[in-house]
Amino acid sequence: MPAAGSASGSGTAEWYRHFGTVDAPGSSPCYADWSLHIADDPRLIARIDEWPYNKRQPLLMLAAARFLGAAVAPYAEFRTFLDGHWDEISRIVLSRATQTNEVGRCATLLPSLAAIAAAEGRPLALIEVGASAGLALFPDHYSYEFDDGATVTRLAPAASGEPPAGPGEPPVLRCRTAGPVPLPGSLPEVVWRAGIDLNPLDVRNPDDVAWLEALIWPEQEFRRERLRRAIAVARQDPPLLVAGDLNDQLPPLAARAPADAALVVFHSAVMGYVSADGRARFRATVQDLALDRGCHWLSNEGETVIIQEDGSAVVPEMDPGRLGGNFLLLHDGQPVAITGPHGQSLDWL
């Protein structure tokens, strides 16, 4: 999404046009088509502009419609659905948030997590900000397939031995790789995990689970299936989730992490929902933690909100064209990889 506070009025149409031309193509033809039509629908844009700015984002509105039963269909049918359900859609948009708990992103974070554990010689303590239901806090419980085009590297939890295949097994996270990705030989040990969210979702709450499924884009049944498998993992031992502002909650939560573990603070697709001042404060908070506690910081964000010391939107030496529609993974502020937004690719720098 655009940096918070950057658009209003006609900017909403451009927001939907950007989603339809940059974010959705290749992932959801349906969402791409709907978003482009919405961008050219002044009456609908005017309705959307009645919501607060942070509620106008394409994915939130589209997910609310899907939550209410909107089918994958031509835009004319979808537009009729919107007209018939607008009050309900507004209620959901105003009461919910975009909390896509994309577990596939664990694949793009795993090499960095394993490298931190190896360098520290200690197990990990994880804190995710913007954690949603906390599914990304279980990287040690999932299986992985990293494919560089010539070789497939498989990793699985020690207890299972082989990548799971049957119903009820943890998900297998598949990721295309390029460049010198430092793939580990085994999964890192995680001894403590916790998350922060303005409104944590509960994997034991059917309504919250239904909302998580609604946030999955149409035509991506594989994402819906791995979400369900990840939810089954989390239900076995739900993570500690704290409600509140990430800047207020991070220091006291970090103080609860075991001192004999390597602390990692991470986030994916979160900073777009935080003001520029909030992002600057968060950078300072993490840097203070690094000095006081020795924590590591993994930032996995889109090009419009990558945090730079000078306030710039992208890394100065990075070709912006490489980042279009992708995320940039930074470790303690240093770029290490370009990643697919749903964890589908990892291009090591």
Describe this entry's structure for a reader.
The protein has an eleven-stranded mixed sheet with strand order 3-2-4-11-10-9-8-7-1-5-6, sandwiched between helices. The chain is an alpha/beta fold and 349 residues long. It has helices at 11-23, 29-39, 42-48, 58-67, 75-95, 106-120, 206-214, 221-236, 246-254, 276-293, 320-323; strands at residues 124-129, 143-147, 152-155, 172-178, 190-197, 240-243, 262-268, 296-302, 327-331, 334-339, 345-348. Strand 10 and strand 11 (345-348) form a beta hairpin. The chain is globular, with a radius of gyration of 20 Å. Mean pLDDT is 89; it is low at 1-9 and 160-167. It is 38% helix and 18% strand. The longest helix is centred in the N-terminal third of the chain and has 21 residues, at 75-95.
Secondary-structure blueprint of this entry?
Blueprint: H1 11-23, H2 29-39, H3 42-48, H4 58-67, H5 75-95, H6 106-120, E1 124-129, E2 143-147, E3 152-155, E4 172-178, E5 190-197, H7 206-214, H8 221-236, E6 240-243, H9 246-254, E7 262-268, H10 276-293, E8 296-302, H11 320-323, E9 327-331, E10 334-339, E11 345-348
Parallel strand pairs: 1-5, 1-7, 2-4, 4-11, 5-6, 7-8
Antiparallel strand pairs: 2-3, 8-9, 9-10, 10-11
Keywords:
alpha/beta, eleven-stranded mixed β-sheet, 18% strand, 349 residues, globular
Shape summary: globular
The count of strands amounts to 11
Trace the largest sheet across and list its strands.
3-2-4-11-10-9-8-7-1-5-6
The whole-number mean of residue pLDDT values reads: 89
Give the termini separation.
24 Å
For the report, how would you describe the main beta sheet? 11 strands, mixed
Helix content: 25-40%
Unreliable residue runs: 1-9, 160-167
DSSP summary: helix tally: 11
Please report which band the strand proportion falls in: under 5%, 5-15%, 15-25%, 25-35%, 35-45% or over 45%.
15-25%
